Automatic annotation (TrEMBL), chain A:
It comes from the Bacteria. The keyword Transcription regulation does not apply. This is Benzoyl-CoA reductase subunit B. Its EC number is 1.3.7.8. It comes from Blastochloris sulfoviridis. Keywords: Iron, Iron-sulfur, Metal-binding, Oxidoreductase.
TrEMBL record, chain B:
Its EC number is 1.3.7.8. The lineage of its organism: Bacteria, Pseudomonadati, Pseudomonadota, Alphaproteobacteria, Hyphomicrobiales. This is Benzoyl-CoA reductase subunit C. One of its GO terms (molecular function) is metal ion binding. Keywords: Iron, Iron-sulfur, Metal-binding, Oxidoreductase. Belongs to the FldB/FldC dehydratase alpha/beta subunit family. InterPro entries: Benzoyl_CoA_Rdtase_C (IPR011958), FldB/FldC_alpha/beta (IPR010327). NCBIfam families: benz_CoA_red_C. It comes from Blastochloris sulfoviridis. Pfam families: HGD-D. It comes from the Bacteria.
Length: 427, 397
């Protein structure tokens, strides 16, 4: 397959991520400390205020999935006693360690100085870091974020998170970094975050246009890259989102759709979809092609909300730094209860004038997947738009059946056509 | 209060007691709980799922706490499968089946305690499916500092109390809770006594019996269960049963979706005395008495923070403590080996398995692992595996 064509913002992002990997792998030269932490509910601004670098194991697993390395890593982990049933991100990570722990820049990952277990929206995180802790024997700081089981957060939840930040996380990070906590540095970072968040939301909301100048799933995973990883709160992230915004604006002005990996502008958009669930990474490009080949653009997705639901109005707030970190953690997509997820997806289908909801159900991920069939039925019922269900995995190539996925997508598009014809006849 | 078992004619032999428990266990229409509810107007039943819920609060609200542990292998799941993909464990689909087939239509409230993301998401599904049933996701703390996690948890308990008050329309006083705590302390003591008795003389208290005794206890009033436990202890002690040349083993990993009863029996038939397990943990989740003096909510919170068991739904703050609980229990029960038996697709048990098993290896405790589903039918492979394990333990002991 030819080299994928990338939008300028994608190239910029690639550079940023590479720069972060270089900073991580050169920690022994720079003397900087490195944390491992998760994407949902990550405390990037706080870590940065201590000068601590941020390494995200899910992002490493994604990188290894896209580079077709994850299959071997997963087998390696299964050989050493990890069950075939559990999340493949964990096994890709553990397998990578077993095979030399090499970062995408080809250099060995240094051991982390701290595991910051931001426990938001997914049970597996807790065990993942218990497993890593056995290997690294480094301090592990647990931030427990309660689940919004009744569909909203409470004062008690927020107070609990803030007191953990004050009593556990901040003192722990002070100890690891040797740097005293400076709330003004944190405020500054949060101010930066909010600016980037404004621009990200603007970009994601352009999916409401016809044609859509963005793909909110396949393109979306690039758009969220900097803010979901090590850059939220930095001036680089502000610059990135300004550049991205300009790029999208230029497409709006030209009346064209997003650029596909084949290099064409995807403007002939026959189907507008909302997608729920993470993508498959091992066949990412083939998967994407199945959509644009059929004229399907994704106008909104839930995956682009796992690291924060900015489109629902949340912004990091420099005037209430710790409380705002707590609210951020509580509000990430997978920390919302099922009825709320149904509400959100229904609203997306309506607001983005989509033809329906497509669920990519991930074998690995109970956090997303358990209950998705009901989500589909409910959203179908409430929007009167057809839904569809495909099943893949994140980084385990054994669970990506291209023929199957393609068949299902084709039938789905036929179903949408039928529905349209029915509606036209009725009109 | 109305008892499910009439104590005047209460069974006194182990066979009678267990037959009674088996009947309750087998009855997926929950006839006894329905009868309890119908006996007095206004009574409410509150269902709860694994692993731990503060039953004292449900009891203090005057409600019957009803343990719901899936459908086992006796129920055909027809609708439930349409709600879940093939790679998700069985218990949520059989619980949904119980709901959509009307078997839980008398249940007024449902508590979904934190154990993993599957039950967490099921709590939201319940809200959509049964909007008229009060349902609560009950999150327990993963921070075990009394001033942080303890304080948060006390407020969560208070919220649960208020939810139950709204459900029942009656105030739950501190004294109500204290009375319930005292009864559940009795229950914990009796439960421990039964398990200790089993560990001492496993041939007199087979696990297939003890299991039924405990499961049935989660479907009746605690007062009644206390009487039943005492009766069982007395009867089991008095009865003479042949002692076999079995090995002593512990079973871990079965804290949520339960193995079919046949599996429990198969392990015994393969030559193992199960002297320690984590089946349906709720009645031993707190390992000590909860103080009945002072603020009862604070007492329940503190008990959770300080004296609850180590199991997969809890974070272990210090690496060196991981698996310690299991090893101590194994030693206390003088088990010679461990069977790590987990439901298929169970993240908590399967993610923990390598860590716990590594600790067992370090402690020189032999172990094997297998997976099951609550509706597993074929027992032959399990019997063979457990039998081979028992033989190897005998060989090396
Ligand atoms: S279970 Fe899902 S949310 Fe959790 S680590 Fe795996 S992929 Fe991420
Ligand atoms: S059996 Fe395991 S995965 Fe399934 S609900 Fe229970 S704890 Fe969760």
């Amino acid at each position: 397959m030819s080299e994928a064509v990338k939008e300028p913002s994608m190239l910029l992002q690639k550079e940023m991520i590479a720069k972060n990997y270089d900073a991580i792998t050169s920690k022994h030269q720079s003397g900087r400390k490195v944390s491992s932490t998760f994407v949902p509910g990550n405390l990037n601004e706080l870590l940065a205020s201590f000068g601590i670098l941020n390494n995200l194991p899910e992002i490493n697993a994604i990188q290894n999935g896209m580079r077709k390395l994850s299959g071997d890593y997963i087998l390696e982990a299964e050989k050493s006693g990890h069950s075939e049933d559990v999340c493949t991100y964990v096994k890709a990570d553990i397998g990578m360690m077993g095979k030399g722990n090499i970062a995408p820049n080809g250099k060995p990952f240094p051991d982390p100085d701290v595991l910051l277990l931001s426990y938001t929206g997914c049970y597996t995180f807790m065990k993942w870091f218990e497993l890593l802790r056995e290997e690294y024997k480094c301090p592990t700081l647990m931030l427990h974020v309660p689940y919004e089981g009744d569909g909203h957060s409470t004062k008690n939840m927020r107070d609990y998170i803030v007191s953990q930040l004050k009593e556990v996380i901040i003192p722990g990070l002070e100890q690891v970094s040797g740097v005293k906590f400076d709330i003004d540095r944190l405020r500054e970072a949060l101010r930066n975050s909010a600016k980037a968040e404004d621009d990200l939301v603007w970009v994601l909301e352009q999916g409401k246009r016809t044609p859509s100048p963005i793909d909110a799933y396949f393109g979306g995973v690039y758009y969220i890259g900097p803010i979901f990883t090590a850059f939220r709160g930095t001036p680089e992230a502000i610059a990135y989102y300004q550049a991205l915004r300009k790029e999208v604006q230029a497409r709006i002005d030209a009346g064209v759709g997003p650029v596909t990996p084949d290099g064409s502008n995807f403007s002939d958009q026959k189907y507008r979809l909302v997608v729920e669930g993470p993508p498959n990474w091992t066949s990412f490009r083939d998967f994407w092609k199945m959509f644009y080949d059929e004229g399907a653009v994704v106008v909104a997705s839930s995956y682009t909300k796992v690291g924060g639901m900015y489109d629902l109005g949340f912004r990091h707030d420099p005037d209430h730094p710790l409380e705002s970190l707590a609210d951020y953690c509580l509000g990430c997509y997978t920390n919302r209860n099922l009825p709320t997820r149904v509400d959100i997806l229904t609203k997306y289908v309506e607001d983005y004038q989509a033809d329906g909801l497509l669920i990519n159900s991930i074998k690995s991920c109970n956090s997303f997947s358990a209950g998705q069939l009901m989500i589909m039925k409910e959203v179908e019922r409430r929007t009167s738009k057809p839904g569809a269900f495909i099943e893949t995995d994140l980084v385990d190539p054994r669970y990506f059946s291209a023929a199957n996925v393609k068949n299902r997508l084709e039938s789905y598009f036929q179903m949408i056509e039928q529905k349209r014809r029915g509606a036209a006849r009725a009109a | 209060m109305n008892a499910i078992v009439d104590t005047a004619t209460a069974p006194t032999s182990t066979a009678e007691i267990i037959a009674h428990c088996q009947a309750l266990f087998d009855d997926l229409n929950f006839t006894a709980a329905r009868a309890w509810k119908n006996a007095v107007p206004g009574r409410k039943v509150v269902g709860f799922l694994p692993v731990y819920a503060p039953l004292e609060l449900i009891h203090a609200a005057g409600c019957l706490p009803l343990g719901l542990f899936g459908g086992g292998d006796r129920m055909e799941v027809i609708h439930g499968d349409a709600y879940y993909q093939s790679y998700i464990c069985r218990i949520p689909r059989s619980t949904v089946e119980l709901g959509v087939t009307g078997r839980l239509d008398f249940v007024d409230g449902m508590i979904f305690p934190f154990v993993c993301d599957v039950i967490r998401n099921l709590s939201g599904m319940w809200k959509i499916m049964f909007p008229n049933v009060w349902s609560k996701f009950f999150d327990t703390p993963q921070n075990f500092d009394p001033e942080i996690g303890g304080r948060y948890y006390a407020a969560e308990l208070q919220e649960l109390r208020e939810g139950l008050q709204a459900l029942t329309g009656r105030t739950i006083s501190d004294d109500d809770i204290r009375r319930s705590i005292a009864l559940y302390n009795d229950n914990r003591r009796l439960v421990r006594a039964v398990y200790d008795f089993r560990a001492r003389t496993p041939w007199k208290a087979p696990t297939s019996e003890v299991y039924l005794l405990m499961r049935a206890g989660l479907m009746m009033e605690v007062e009644e269960h206390n009487r039943l436990l005492s009766a069982y202890l007395a009867a089991a002690e008095a009865e003479d049963r042949p002692k076999r040349d079995n090995v002593r083993i512990a079973v871990y990993g079965s804290f949520c979706e339960q193995p079919p009863l046949n599996l429990i029996k198969s392990v015994e038939m393969a030559g193992c005395y199960v002297v320690e397990d984590d089946y349906a943990l709720v009645n031993r989740f707190l390992t000590e008495d909860v103080p009945v003096e002072g603020d009862p909510i604070a007492a329940l919170a503190r008990a959770y923070i300080e004296t609850s068991v180590e199991t997969s739904c809890k974070y272990v703050p210090r690496e060196e403590d991981k698996g310690k609980f299991h090893i101590e229990q194994v030693k206390k029960a003088r088990a010679e080996g461990v069977i790590y038996a987990t439901p298929s697709f169970c993240d908590p048990a399967l993610l923990d398995r390598p860590m716990i098993c590594r600790r067992l290896t370090e402690a020189g405790i032999p172990h094997i692992a297998f997976k099951y589903a609550e509706n597993s039918g074929q027992m032959q492979p399990i019997r063979e595996q457990a039998g081979t394990f028992a033989d190897s333990l005998k060989l090396w002991s």
